């Protein structure tokens, strides 16, 4: 038995190393691509004269911080997490301290690494499947409610809401790690038992939800209406898609037999408030594209794909 346990442990570590290497590669490509297409100025570039230490390329996201966090996600559940996690936070803080990035850029870096990890995990763990709860209503009500609360906070005070989400995400990632290593956290255990889906990393969906919101706020920091509109699409649209799809779904989509026309229609209905808040054809375009992305048969979490794709479209076209 000990030999079999060691072999299984080596197998898990080998899979983890593969995901790590692929995460670093994908995250690096994503970070450099975002920098090329998203003209976000660095804080030091706004100073006249520009300091000699100020890089000349775009700011969003921080490449250093993205790569640092690409070492964090693959080691969730491993003791090495406690080494790489504080180092990644220090790297992010140092880039802000140097004046070459803002915390908005760092937030985008955390999300970029999460997307890189999600893609890498989908490639390596091809057998991964999501098993829905028998009753998804409570889970989706929380999903929608949290999104609405974020929107209210952003409307009242964008900066403070951003820092609350950022700090909450940093703490949340640590909670996920503690759950994975078997440390009992009463409140977290209760919430996971009541609302988490089966056969998934504990708290992974909530973590990606917060990280997706960070990418939205980080990139669209200068336009609260865009932020609110996209978060409503992510929360109301995605939430209603699952509720209506699970309860009334009868007609499967041709490109994804696990999704239904009723669910996709629910997504679009849920996203209507975003179109009313930001009345522009681009908002409707983002809503339709997001509904399509949510319906695709891919294993990359849509709490990441929808915010990234939607934010980039808003940023470039509005």
| Beta-strand fraction estimate | under 5%
Give the termini distance in whole angstroms: 61 Å
The total count of strands amounts to: 2
The low-confidence runs, each spanning 5 or more residues with pLDDT under 50, are: 1-8
Output the number of helix runs: 13
- Average pLDDT number: 89
Question: What structural class do you assign from the helix and strand content?
Answer: mainly alpha
Principal-axes geometry comes out as: globular
Number of domains: 1
Radius of gyration: 20 Å
Amount of helix: over 70%
Report the sheet with the most strands, covering strand number, pairing sense and barrel closure. 2 strands, antiparallel
Question: What's the arrangement of secondary structure elements?
Answer:
Layout: H1 2-37, H2 63-70, H3 81-97, H4 103-124, H5 137-156, H6 158-180, H7 186-195, H8 204-219, H9 224-248, E1 252-253, E2 256-260, H10 261-270, H11 272-277, H12 281-295, H13 302-317
Antiparallel strand pairs: 1-2
Helix pairs in contact: 1-2, 1-4, 2-3, 2-4, 4-8, 5-6, 5-9, 6-8, 8-13, 9-10, 9-12, 9-13, 10-12, 12-13
Word description of this protein:
The chain is mostly helical and 318 residues long. The chain has one domain. The protein contains 13 helices and two strands. The protein has helices at 2-37, 63-70, 81-97, 103-124, 137-156, 158-180, 186-195, 204-219, 224-248, 261-270, 272-277, 281-295, 302-317; strands at 252-253, 256-260. The protein has a two-stranded antiparallel sheet with strand order 1-2. The longest helix has 36 residues, at 2-37. The protein is globular, with a radius of gyration of 20 Å.
């Amino acid at each position: 038995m000990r030999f079999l346990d060691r072999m299984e442990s080596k197998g898990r570590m080998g899979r983890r190393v593969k995901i790590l290497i692929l995460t670093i590669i994908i995250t690096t490509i994503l970070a450099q691509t975002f920098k090329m297409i998203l003209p976000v100025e660095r804080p030091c570039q706004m100073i006249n004269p520009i300091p000699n230490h100020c890089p000349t390329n775009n700011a969003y996201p921080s490449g250093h911080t993205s790569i640092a966090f690409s070492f964090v996600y693959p080691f969730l559940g491993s003791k090495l997490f406690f080494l790489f996690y504080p180092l990644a936070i220090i790297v992010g803080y140092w880039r802000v301290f140097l004046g070459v990035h803002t915390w908005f850029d760092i937030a985008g870096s955390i999300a970029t690494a999460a997307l890189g990890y999600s893609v890498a995990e989908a490639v390596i763990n091809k057998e991964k499947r999501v098993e829905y709860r028998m009753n998804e209503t409570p889970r989706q009500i929380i999903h929608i409610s949290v999104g609405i609360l974020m929107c209210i906070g952003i409307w009242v005070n964008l900066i403070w809401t951003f820092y609350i989400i950022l700090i909450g995400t940093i703490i949340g990632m640590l909670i996920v790690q503690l759950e994975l290593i078997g440390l009992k956290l009463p409140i977290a255990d209760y919430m996971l038992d009541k609302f988490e889906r089966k056969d998934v990393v504990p708290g992974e969906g909530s973590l990606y939800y917060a990280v997706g919101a960070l990418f939205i706020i980080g990139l669209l920091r200068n336009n609260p209406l865009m932020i609110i509109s996209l978060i409503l699409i992510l929360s109301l649209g995605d939430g209603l898609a699952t509720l209506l799809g699970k309860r009334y779904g009868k007609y499967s989509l041709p490109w994804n037999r696990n999704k239904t026309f009723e669910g996709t229609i629910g997504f679009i209905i849920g996203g209507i408030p975003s179109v009313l808040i930001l009345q522009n054809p681009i908002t409707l375009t983002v809503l339709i594209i997001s509904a399509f992305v949510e319906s695709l048969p891919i294993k990359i979490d849509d709490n990441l794909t929808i915010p990234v794709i939607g934010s980039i479209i808003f940023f470039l076209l509005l």
